[in-house]
Design a protein that fits this description.
The complex is a heterodimer. Chain A is mainly α. Chain A has a single domain (43-71, 107-314), classed as MetI-like (MetI-like fold, Orthogonal Bundle), CATH 1.10.3720. Chain A is built from 12 helices and no strands. Chain A has helices spanning 5-19, 32-44, 46-63, 65-68, 105-141, 143-157, 161-172, 176-203, 206-213, 218-254, 267-274, 283-310. Chain A is elongated. Chain B is mainly α. Chain B has a domain at 96-285: MetI-like (MetI-like fold, Orthogonal Bundle), CATH 1.10.3720. In chain B, helix 5 runs parallel beside helix 13 (299-327). Chain B is globular, with a radius of gyration of 24 Å. The chains are: A mainly alpha, B mainly alpha.
Chain lengths: 317, 334
């Protein structure tokens, strides 16, 4: 279509990359150049760096919660100081003040990061695994298996995502597991579609034809050639999905599907509990809400930057 | 064009059929069952059995499904176990509220999003552009219900500029011939009632419209930037097309193609968001009713409402594809 330098460069890279893809090479070797290029471009993108920093801080806080938080997730150290019309604000003892039940807001926010990370990662892994099974089966077999599977995927996509998540969580019952499964299942059709699409695009590529004509089995070609080359968009999508998962988990909690008591250290739950205290202590809503937004922003920034960095069309511009 | 529409409508039939089977089975997989949910602590085995017999939940599944589908095709969506009123009535009573809300939200999103994205693209790389990009990213990542909280807290609770809940002030005496409160006020010339209803819509609509607004602004910006640098724009300019006409006839028109698809895709998002926004603002639409139906395990309402929403969703997507033909002459030929 075009013979722009960028397109030519991409073509060149593709040819060079595929030239070395013999059956005796390690799976990690393929696409090494594209990842190196991507890493270099990410380092130059301020949005990517900001996103990476946010994600890194979030993950560290979540992992190190027991060391960072002055109080445990269920502890209510300031219970005696709470009055119906008065909730103590920030002090030297309680960095961000107390909540309605006498819990330390600062500690609960830190434990909340851990809850969000667990929910986000597990649900995205679930969505990815489910999507991989569905998408790979459809993409690898083609024919009526493909048609039937994709009809089903369309069916799932024909219901707005939050409604679908709410429906699933309602079936399982009110618990964190329900939230994880619900968000994960909602992601399945999205990943399935993406994986099938990239697989089909890869299948027509010359290097696949070359590998097949060398006598490699369909399974080997799929597993060690098509799959690694389809990974880029999937990783991007997974990063963006983590942002969605954090937000949707909060939404499900808000609708009361997260389970647990009102004192649970989970951002969505804290935000929900705070809606009755808007006039007494708005900070109780502001902190968890802002942290949800910032965390989601971090994953989105990083995901978008990664998408740009991995896209051969925008390379070397 | 007509063929395309008919084809798509025909495709809708198996999709809806599949959805109806799934919905039917899913609703029956809910724990507890509707009788338990309805009776709560008064759920003695005897009472549960009576409720089950009354609504036909004791019959074999396939029999229930055939009955349900048969009634469905006759426009009978069953009876809400919660309110004992027909599902269709419940839906029709609330649908105008949600339409009003989502329409205003979409209007805000399109009305602000497209100009914003366009202006940002024209000032690409400058402060205004960067601000728009960051703001649109934030718009996507702020949870809808958190934004709803913030708006409610700031503009309703603190400043008292807007009402904080409901569709119309309780003190307002108004007649409702259509169920669209703003429209009703205009039709009956009860101007204060129309104004009051509109004021109730503003905050929820802004909250609901925030995500679509951010997405539309981003897509518009990206699309305009791409079209601006296209060869045919340069050609048109070289042929002497004035800057005003160039922008309107060539740039904007071509840039609107991906934007129109995006707008269509927002409908699902708006319906999801309505569940949250309506809950925060105690706005009596289908979103808040649906959220309650999940907890009451109101089978008929869940099945009916989700099916309705899927139909609306599908029709909107069809309309988007048709609008494609109107914007892009190349699509008309197919």
């Amino acid at each position: 279509m075009t013979t722009e330098p960028a397109a030519q460069a991409a073509l060149h890279d593709d040819l060079l990359g595929s030239a070395g893809d013999g059956p005796d090479r390690e799976p990690g070797d393929e696409g090494a150049s594209i990842w190196r290029v991507a890493a270099r471009r990410l380092r130059r993108n301020p949005g990517a760096i900001l996103g990476a920093v946010i994600v890194l801080v979030f993950v560290l806080v979540a992992l190190l919660a027991p060391l960072l938080a002055p109080y445990g997730p269920q502890e209510l150290p300031g219970r005696a100081e709470i009055r119906p019309t008065y909730i103590p604000g920030p002090s030297s003892e309680y960095l961000l003040g107390l909540d309605r039940y006498g819990g330390d807001l600062f500690s609960k926010l830190i434990w909340g990061a851990r809850a969000s990370l667990v929910i986000g990662v597990l649900s995205t892994l679930l969505g990815l695994a489910g999507g991989a099974v569905v998408g790979l089966v459809a993409g690898a077999f083609g024919g009526w298996v493909d048609t039937m599977t994709m009809r089903f995927v369309d069916l799932m996509l024909s219901v707005p995502s939050l409604l679908l998540a709410v429906s699933i969580a309602a079936v399982i019952g009110q618990s964190p597991v329900a939230v994880i499964v619900a968000i994960g299942v909602v992601q399945v059709p999205i990943f399935a579609r993406l994986l099938r699409g990239t697989m089909l695009a890869q299948r027509g590529q010359d290097y696949v034809l070359a590998a097949r004509s060398l006598g490699l089995s369909r399974r080997t070609v799929t597993m060690s050639h098509v799959l690694p080359n389809s990974l880029g968009p999937v990783i991007v999508q997974a990063t963006l999905m983590l942002a969605t998962a954090v937000i949707e988990a909060a939404a499900l909690s808000f609708l009361g599907l997260g389970g647990g008591s009102p004192t649970t250290a989970e951002w969505g739950r804290m935000l929900t509990a705070a809606q009755n205290e808007l006039e007494v202590a708005p900070r109780l809503a502001l902190w968890p809400g802002a942290l949800i937004a910032i965390t989601a922003l971090g994953f989105t920034l990083f995901g978008e930057a990664l998408r740009e960095a991995l896209d051969p069309k925008t390379r070397k511009r | 064009m007509v063929r395309l529409v008919l084809q798509r409508l025909a495709l809708l039939v198996p999709t809806l059929f599949g959805l109806s089977v799934l919905l039917f089975l899913w609703v029956r997989a809910l724990p507890g069952g509707p009788a338990t949910a309805l009776l709560g602590e008064r759920a003695t085995p005897d009472a549960v059995e009576r409720i089950n017999r009354l609504y036909g939940f004791d019959r074999p599944l396939h029999e229930q499904y055939v009955t349900w589908l048969g009634q469905l095709l006759q426009g009978n969506f069953g009876v809400s176990t919660r309110t004992a009123r027909p599902v269709l009535d419940e839906f029709l009573a609330r649908f105008p509220a949600t339409i009003e809300l989502t329409a205003l939200a979409l209007l805000i999103a399109v009305g602000v999003g497209i100009p914003l994205g366009y202006v940002a693209a024209r000032h690409q790389g400058r402060l205004l552009d960067h601000t728009t990009v960051v703001a649109s990213l934030l718009g996507v990542t702020i949870p809808v219900f958190f934004l709803a909280f913030l708006l409610k807290w700031m503009f309703a609770v603190q400043l008292g500029l807007f009402p904080s809940a409901g569709r119309q002030s309780a003190s307002m005496v108004a007649t409702h011939p259509t169920g669209f409160y703003v429209l009703d006020g205009l039709l009956t010339r009860e101007w204060d009632a129309a104004w009051d209803a509109l004021m109730h819509l503003v905050l929820p609509a802004i909250a609901l419209g925030s995500i679509p607004l951010a997405i539309i602004a981003r897509i518009t910006r990206a699309s305009v930037i791409e079209v601006q640098n296209a060869d045919y724009v340069r050609t048109a300019r070289a042929k002497g097309l004035g800057p005003g006409r160039l922008r309107r006839r060539v740039v904007l028109r071509n840039a609107m193609l991906p934007v129109s698809t995006t707008i269509g895709l927002q409908v699902g998002l708006l319906l999801s968001g309505a569940v949250l926004t309506e809950t925060v603002f105690a706005f009596n639409g289908i979103g808040s009713f649906l959220a309650n139906a999940v907890f009451n395990l109101d089978y008929a309402v869940l099945q009916g409402f989700i099916l309705f929403i899927a139909v609306v969703y599908a029709l909107v997507n069809l309309a988007v594809d048709v609008s494609y033909g109107l914007i892009d002459p190349r699509m008309r030929a197919r």
